[in-house]
Design brief:
2 helices; rod-shaped
């Protein structure tokens, strides 16, 4: 018996409300931990990019000022 045949005889609220709620109840911890991991990883990547960009900015700022400041 295919899943479509099983679901065909059920009311709409079972398919669209009860089953998703059961999925969230059973797998909610896994879904939450995966989302937490992905968001944390994205935050760390963005923080890394910002720190590298800041480092490049500071190095270019000091190297350009040291070139022009050597005249006096």
């Amino acid at each position: 018996m295919a899943v479509q045949e099983i679901l065909a005889g059920l009311p709409w609220w079972v398919k669209w409300v009860a089953i998703p709620l059961l999925v969230l109840l059973v797998f909610g911890g896994i879904i939450t931990s995966l989302l937490t991991f992905v968001i944390g990883l994205l935050f760390k990547v963005l923080l890394f990019v910002a720190l590298v960009a800041g480092l490049i900015y500071v190095v270019r700022k000091f190297t350009s000022s040291s070139r022009s400041g050597g005249d006096w």
